[in-house]
Structure formats: C-alpha cells, structure tokens
Amino acid sequence: MTHRLFMLDVPENTSIAAVAEEVPGVEVDRIGPYFVIASEEPVVIDRRATGARHAVWYSCIGGLDGCRIVQWDKDALRLERR
Question: What pTM, to 2 d.p., does this model score?
Fold first, then answer.
C-alpha cells in the first residue's frame, strides 16, 4: 500500500518536493494545490539538502495518508507506513 504526504504547492516548499523526488522509490505528483509525495517504502528527506529554513521545514506538512512521522527534526523528515 502506498503512503502519501501532502504539502501545499507554494514556492517555499518547492525545494522540499524536489529533494523528495530524488529519493529512490519516491514519486512526487500534484493534486489540486498540493504536492503529493508517495512511496511504498519509508521516506527520508534531508532538511539541509532542501535549503529550507526551520520555519518552513516545520510547517510544510499539510496531511498524511497511510503513514506516520517517526522523525521530524532539524536534520530530517522520516515517514514510515502506519
């Protein structure tokens, strides 16, 4: 079962979606005003690689489907299937 993270498609979040798209097994698409980051496997997005400031990083998630956050700190965002 694919799990998904929804993130508002705004300029501040573009670099996060771009870095997520480089993670093996991750697909980034759009539904309405959201980026949708989807994968069958756990996902790790490195904050430093995104260049996102902390305020953007900690406000980027709009919703989750079929997964949970197991790490969301200054280093990375890690999602695993529920």
Answer: 0.94
